[in-house]
UniProtKB/TrEMBL annotation:
This is A disintegrin and metalloproteinase with thrombospondin motifs adt-2. Pfam families: ADAMTS_CR_2 (PF17771). Keywords: Disulfide bond, Glycoprotein, Hydrolase, Integrin, Metal-binding, Zinc. GO terms for molecular function: hydrolase activity; metal ion binding. Residues 393-427 are annotated as: Disordered.
């Protein structure tokens, strides 16, 4: 989190913002804030004359910000200065004016979610355009638990029939200016015009565990201007893995879990790197259980599924799709999108996997405030098994990740300095 002093100086000689960079990773965002609010002063806060580029960095040298940015501008961040000079040859694709003040008509809610999560399978939690998107757009992906807030949707994002977002409100849409390169107008974004392409299937893959099947990822593309269509763009189907696994020994789920847990333990010291792991029994109320990898704890006994800790770590805390997970006496069940589902199960064309009647941890998985407490004991118990592999909590409702209290994020980010006091009549 970037903390900004945000001081606006009343002295006419200065008009830049001051930013205190706490960590190296904050430098880009901090400099972006400065660049937005920078003024026309040709001096820094010490009264020293600076050139055009130094002015954008401001007086950040006390925390290494200026040196950091000087290194960036000589390397990959030279684009920070594109367009600052009238003579710069910047392509039209880099000029925000081309969107006519309504970028959401091109970068719809789904595309905004894809950019936020860097995941082409991401989509709004509420797939149908609605006014709530203008206040806070929530995004999900079938590859992670929970959802992520993206902030208010971009201006021009569809929020209803012939409605779009402007300034955090859902208002009647207007025609995009002809001077822009967009053309057209905003609809309800449900994909009635053109809509989805046909499904494109990937190659059959498999984890080659005992009794497993292979899986194919299926994707389709929304052909509307805004990229908003009703239903998922991602699906998984089972396939025959006999040829794929013919030249290798099929491993047990316990062996695969042990390998994965050893990898997880390099990031999570609370896990025993040599303690192995297991596959939990299927629970029809918690369909994820039979597909999550449970690892033995380093202390205290029992097993734990590190789904929360690994949600953003780039490690998959689940068994591969196609892994056998249950038999109900008539049908085999296999993992599909991290849920244990019957072999003949078909996801509806308009249904996202998170709409299944399955209990799970719920809440925002955005970065927490520095003062936010660690996951509660109830959350850890919900994701734990005893030494026999039985859930510690049965029939308990899933815990909710509570939002951080507002005062965790409050900061005195600006100080008003009064102007010169008026002289009294007697002076």
């Amino acid at each position: 989190m970037v903390q900004c002093a945000g001081i606006t100086l009343s002295d006419p000689s200065f008009s830049d913002s001051c930013v205190r960079i706490l960590h190296r990773c904050d430098a880009f965002v901090a400099n972006f804030i400065v660049a937005e609010f920078r003024g026309e002063s040709n001096k820094d806060l010490n009264g020293e004359k600076v050139n055009e580029r130094e002015r954008e960095v401001g007086g950040a040298e006390g925390h290494g910000g200026r040196n950091e940015m000087r290194g960036w501008e000589r390397g990959w961040a030279t684009c920070l200065y594109d367009g600052g000079d009238p003579d710069d040859a910047v392509g039209d694709e880099l000029r925000h004016e081309r969107f006519g003040g309504a970028p959401g008509t091109v970068w719809g809610a789904k595309r905004q979610c894809e950019l936020l999560l860097r995941d082409r399978d991401a989509a709004p939690t509420r797939p149908t355009p609605e006014p709530q998107h203008c206040v806070q757009l929530a995004c999900r992906t079938p590859h992670r638990t929970g959802f992520y807030y993206a902030g208010p949707a971009l201006p021009g994002t569809a929020c209803g029939q012939d409605m779009w977002c402007q300034g955090g409100s859902c208002v009647k849409a207007e025609e995009v200016p002809e001077s822009s390169t967009l053309g057209g107008s905003v609809t309800d974004g449900t994909g009635e015009d053109d809509g989805w392409s046909t499904w494109q299937e990937g190659a059959c893959r498999s984890g080659c565990t005992m009794r497993s099947r292979g899986f194919r990822e299926r994707r389709r593309v929304c052909n509307t201007i805004s990229g908003n269509c009703d239903g998922p763009s991602y699906d998984v189907a089972l396939c025959d893995d006999s040829k794929i696994c013919a030249k290798k020994r099929r491993s047990s789920t316990g062996e695969l879990a042990a390998r994965k847990c050893g990898e997880f333990a390099t990031l999570l010291p609370e896990l025993d790197p040599r303690g192995g792991g297991l596959q939990a029994p299927h629970d029809p109320t918690r369909m994820w259980m039979g597909c999550a990898v449970f690892c033995r704890r380093a202390s205290g006994g029992g097993f734990y599924a590190p789904r929360i800790e690994l949600n953003d770590a780039g490690l998959d805390p689940y068994f591969p799709d196609g892994t056998w997970c249950h038999h109900d006496g008539a049908n085999d069940y296999f993992c599909l999108q991290h849920h244990c589902l019957p072999e003949n199960f078909k996801m509806g064309a308009q249904m996202h996997v998170w709409e299944l009647p399955s209990q799970d941890v719920w809440g925002s998985f955005n970065a927490r405030a520095l003062d936010a407490p660690s996951p509660s004991a109830a959350l850890r118990a919900y994701l734990s098994l005893d030494d026999r592999g039985a859930p510690l909590l049965r029939g308990a409702p899933p815990p909710l990740l509570p939002p951080d209290p507002e005062d965790y994020w409050e900061d005195d980010d600006y100080v008003e300095i009064p102007g010169p006091l008026k002289q009294s009549k007697n002076e």
